[in-house]
Here is the input.
Amino acid sequence: MENKNFDFIAPYYDKIVKLVFGNRLRVAQVQLLPLLPQNQRILLIGGGTGWILPELIRICQPSEIVYLEKSAQMLSLSQNQVPKDYPVVWVCGGEEKLLDLGQFDLIFTPFLLDLFPEPELELHIIQPLVSILKPSGHWLLVDFFQTNHYYFTFLTKVMYTFFRYVSGVTNSQLADYPKLLSRNKLVLKHSQEWMKGYVKAQLWQK
Here is the structure.
């Protein structure tokens, strides 16, 4: 699969996100955390600069977090977010590492799935993740969703053009995540949306 690496924009990523979306993407990522069970082994993929780690640890009190990030620069920034004695295992890599990480009670993918075209997403991301999610385990999905709203359709095109040049992202269209997750035996438990449904936080269960 194509490399999707955010090393180049890592130092500026949070500022870019805040400039475009304000705090709405951060709100979406923490909104459903209180619904999650505590003392879980969590796989966090696509956590960016790791700003969410202190919140995730404070609210969910996980037994362990495995932090999988392809960008070495993002990983380095994330390691500065928490004390060294926090229960975080740092893994630099992408989807090729998924089957080497063991089983998880909870998978958290904040703004990850939008990087992949639908066929690749199902085969290389969703199916492997479902296979390492324990029975009755949860998947917290926060991402951009398909919409017919003109402004957000335009914004999606602008974002994909930008990330194609700076990070090698080759996708150009948002996938139908609910269809793919349902097809892979996950059930939607909770959903909340922002910006007319363009951003959603959804909690799924295996």
The chain has a mean pLDDT of 92. Residues 77 and 114 are 22 Å apart (CA to CA). Strands lie at 41-45, 64-69, 88-92, 104-110, 133-144, 187-194, 199-205. The longest strand covers residues 133-144.
